[in-house]
Amino acid sequence: MSILSNKKKVFHVALRGESILTNPHFNKGTAFTINERKQFGLVGRLPYQVNTLDEQCQRAYDQLLSRDTPLRKNSFLQSLKEQNSVLFYQLILRHLKELMPIVYTPTEADAIANYSHLFRRSEGLYLTLDNQDSMEEDFLEQIRGRDIDLIVCSDAEAILGIGDQGVGISTAKSAIYTLLAGIDPMKSLPVVLDVGTDNETLLTDLVYVGWRHERVRGEAYDQFVDKFIQLVRKHLPHSLLHFEDFGVTNAQRLLELYRDKHAVFNDDIQGTGAVTLAAVMSAVGVTKSTLAEQRYIIYGAGSAGLGIARQLRDGIVQIDGISVDEANERFYLIDKHGLIKESLGDLIRPMLREFVRSDKEWEGIPTNDKGEIALLEVVKKIRPTVLIGSSTNAGAFTEEVVREMAKGVDRPIILPLSNPSRLVEVDPAKANEWTNGKALLATGSPFPPARMPTGKDYIIAECNNALIYPGLGFGAVLAKARSLSDSMILAGAQRLASLSPALKDPDDALLPDFSDAPSVNFEIAIAVAEKAIAEGTSNVDWGGEEVRARGKEMQWLPIYGEYVYDENGEC
Ligand SMILES: NC(=O)c1ccc[n+]([C@@H]2O[C@H](COP(=O)([O-])OP(=O)(O)OC[C@H]3O[C@@H](n4cnc5c(N)ncnc54)[C@H](O)[C@@H]3O)[C@@H](O)[C@H]2O)c1
Ligand SMILES: O=C(O)C[C@H](O)C(=O)O
Ligand SMILES: [Mg+2]
Known about the structure:
Layout: E1 10-13, H1 17-21, H2 34-39, H3 53-65, H4 70-83, H5 85-94, H6 96-103, H7 107-113, H8 115-118, E2 125-128, H9 135-143, E3 150-154, H10 170-181, E4 188-194, H11 200-203, H12 218-235, E5 240-243, H13 248-258, E6 264-266, H14 267-286, E7 296-299, H15 303-320, H16 324-328, E8 331-335, E9 338-339, H17 375-382, E10 386-389, H18 399-408, E11 413-416, H19 428-434, E12 440-443, E13 450-451, E14 457-458, E15 461-462, H20 469-478, H21 486-498, H22 501-504, H23 517-535, H24 546-554, E16 562-565
Parallel strand pairs: 1-16, 2-4, 3-4, 3-5, 5-6, 7-8, 7-10, 10-11, 11-12, 12-15
Antiparallel strand pairs: 8-9, 13-14
Helix pairs in contact: 3-4, 4-5, 4-7, 5-6, 9-12, 10-20, 14-15, 14-21, 17-18, 20-23, 21-23
The chain binds nicotinamide-adenine-dinucleotide (NAD), (2S)-2-hydroxybutanedioic acid and magnesium ion (MG).
């Protein structure tokens, strides 16, 4: 257990003076007590007043409000994190709904795009292909003395919907694990796998902090990633390895390659699939139908689109008890080449095979000059009940598409999930207007409520993987699971769906509000850990009622403990 866990009342710390003040994991700033100041050589290094955490939060919040743009607020919070992590997490938890969009989508997209310009202090582990000879040494240096439970890594090729960013994302995703699930920040490790970038803006930017080299692909890339994963397996065999925002050619492939060898998890595929399944379960609860009764269009068949299709399909099979082939029949995937159908040939990624439609089914349907079938034509022919966007193609769900869909179903389920907000396939307020308030909506980034024809507000649920991945990961870590299996993920998604406000009131949001995300993720974690224990993938000898108590005990909360100077203590 780390030094900062509030479960341990007294901490023995070996740092003194400047070194404790400049270490964000130990620093309390003006909250060091008189007694601590004397022991740690801080009396002359701090102003006279001793503040409480409440007072520090108030001051930090006032300072934050004086920053006038979301990006400046993001920079301020990043600095705070580099100074005092208890204060950083405590402040955000107190204003979760307001500050999530600052530290996460949509502002994180701007922060990542400007990473080199905003850069002040390094955080986590930077592994660069050019330095791979010293990878093990660099890795061990960074994890020295720490008991790491969770690693979040990214090669930054497909950051949200903004593409290749060279470096960035792992730290933001890692902080969300602490914020929403209580993973101890000392026990998580954000990792940048820098294999170069094809982003011309970065390559020609004089202050770019990453490796100025074209993105390495193929065998050299695979060897580099493998070297890293073998180090994780060797030195941190019980950790959970989270993959984030890898490009579409690598994401699923790496997941398949390593899922039997280590506890790995791809958030864009599995986390997005799970949160979307929960949202659709909630929506079919409102329409009093079943998952199997729906016709699904998934617009944007990349990592997220494929993960969503597979998770929904598996949900249909498990929950409604039909065969995999029958369930696959309910899906129509659309990519930048239009409807995924046989005649696209090599343009279809092998992983999409099970969802390919036959050409015969589409004979006589209008195409463009390349023989591609557009979204509107698919909507007209199949009369979807569920339309999901994971395409990065802003505005693709046009008024015509939405109105056409609404002709075929009383309550269209429309989930435009692309991030950040500016890339959303349809503004939910517009979809609400074009369907006279009938659409059941959820988006990937936060949006304001939509006004219903009745004058009431309809809350737009945020269908973002952050509502589930911290709980999935925490549950796996809690149960010391050897893998994060499909059934554990399904258990998490079902628990999330069971917490949906729409279950109680069909006019309410499809998913819990982000202000409840910590308690929601805790419930997800319990469901995941219980499943791991039940299916024998866990490495703990307890279960039943104890799971919840153990979960509470393991959670890190941002509260100061009392420090005692001890030259043999933690540092
Ligand atoms: N809400 C969430 O939790 C969540 C999770 C993951 C990803 N996303 C979002 O989903 C989007 C896609 O992410 P990804 O990781 O799958 O990226 P990706 O690059 O793997 O996939 C994008 C897919 O969209 C397709 N596409 C691009 N332009 C298109 C067009 N004009 N018409 C149809 N299809 C088109 C591409 O061919 C590609 O297959 C991003 O905006 C991302 O932020 C949201
Ligand atoms: O990071 C997010 O906000 C969600 C998701 O992982 C994405 O890539 O868009
Ligand atoms: Mg992502």
